[in-house]
């Protein structure tokens, strides 16, 4: 009897994911590494724009993504794992000289707003059509900043901590700041998995792990540690 076994017999499963090319070693990569460690998997992270990440998730080339919000038009082949792992607000950024420009959500209907996602949460309660508000989808934070400086947009939405970090690195913290008015809409963010993924059979184990991590405030701890350094 031979005792020689292929190393593949004991090889760990690989979790394939992707993050923004702007922040290849950023917070999302740390979240993914945490998930991979908890699931005893190796991690393979690619850097690609948001639209391509979604496409690759649809076709199963990516197993799962973090930083996903539930959208009405998400295809049936993508599942949002429960529970959500964090609850955040997208912050409204504007030129420092215009920080008092907006007084309410209704004012935003007259502005050109750049966002990475669809932004129905910006609409006033009496507004029913998404195209009543001038939302421009922009793939990267750096492009949002550049468009604002060039006057191609009036403001943009993004997470506050990462935006201030990039503004500081670009030497623009005195040029762009948060608007005095902010839409007070906090949203849940999820880990999403493709039904075409080889890891989909582990859905129950993934959701059990996420619940324990949320109960232990693990994602909050990772986020706080990331932005304190």
Write the layout of secondary structure elements.
Layout: E1 14-19, H1 27-38, E2 42-47, H2 50-58, E3 64-68, E4 78-80, E5 86-89, E6 91-95, E7 112-115, E8 134-137, H3 141-149, E9 155-158, H4 160-169, E10 176-178, E11 186-194, H5 203-215, H6 218-227
Parallel strand pairs: 1-2, 7-8, 7-9
Antiparallel strand pairs: 3-11, 4-11, 5-11, 6-9, 6-10
The end-to-end span amounts to 55 Å
What is the string of helix and strand elements?
EHEHEEEEEEHEHEEHH
Q: Give me the CATH fold name of the largest domain.
A: D-Maltodextrin-Binding Protein, domain 2
Q: From the 3D coordinates, which CATH architecture of the largest domain would you assign?
A: 3-Layer(aba) Sandwich
What structural class do the secondary elements suggest?
A: alpha/beta
CATH superfamily of the largest domain: Periplasmic binding protein-like II
The share of residues in extended strands comes to 15-25%
The beta-strand count equals 11
Indicate the percent of residues in helices: 25-40%
- What general form does the structure show? elongated
Q: What characteristics describe this protein?
A:
single chain, 229 residues, alpha/beta, D-Maltodextrin-Binding Protein, domain 2, 5-stranded mixed β-sheet, 6 helices, Solute-binding_3/MltF_N, Solute-binding protein family 3/N-terminal domain-containing protein
Model description:
This protein is α/β, with parallel strands linked by helices. It has 2 domains: 116 residues, 3-Layer(aba) Sandwich (D-Maltodextrin-Binding Protein, domain 2); 94 residues, D-Maltodextrin-Binding Protein, domain 2 (3-Layer(aba) Sandwich). It has 6 helices and 11 strands. The radius of gyration is 20 Å and the shape is elongated. The termini are far apart.
């Amino acid at each position: 009897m031979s005792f020689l076994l292929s190393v593949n017999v004991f090889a760990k499963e690989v979790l394939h994911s992707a993050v923004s090319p702007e922040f290849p070693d950023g917070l999302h990569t740390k979240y993914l590494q945490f998930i991979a460690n908890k699931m005893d998997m190796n991690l393979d992270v690619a850097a690609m724009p948001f639209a391509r990440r979604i496409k690759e998730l649809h076709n199963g080339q990516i197993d799962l993504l973090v930083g996903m919000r539930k959208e009405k038009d998400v295809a049936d082949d993508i599942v949002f794992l429960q529970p959500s792992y964090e609850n955040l607000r997208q912050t409204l950024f504007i030129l420092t000289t215009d920080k008092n420009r907006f007084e309410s959500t209704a004012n935003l209907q007259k502005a050109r707003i750049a966002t990475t996602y669809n932004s129905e949460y910006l609409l006033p309660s009496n507004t029913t059509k998404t195209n009543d508000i001038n939302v421009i989808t922009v793939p990267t934070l750096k492009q949002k900043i550049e468009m604002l400086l060039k006057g191609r947009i009036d403001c943009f939405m993004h997470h506050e901590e990462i935006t201030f970090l990039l503004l500081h690195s670009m030497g623009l913290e005195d040029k762009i700041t948060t608007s005095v008015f902010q839409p007070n809409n906090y949203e849940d963010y999820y880990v999403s998995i493709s039904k075409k993924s080889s890891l989909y059979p582990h859905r129950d184990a993934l959701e059990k792990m996420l619940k324990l991590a949320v109960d232990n405030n693990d994602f909050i701890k990772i986020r706080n540690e990331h932005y304190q350094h």
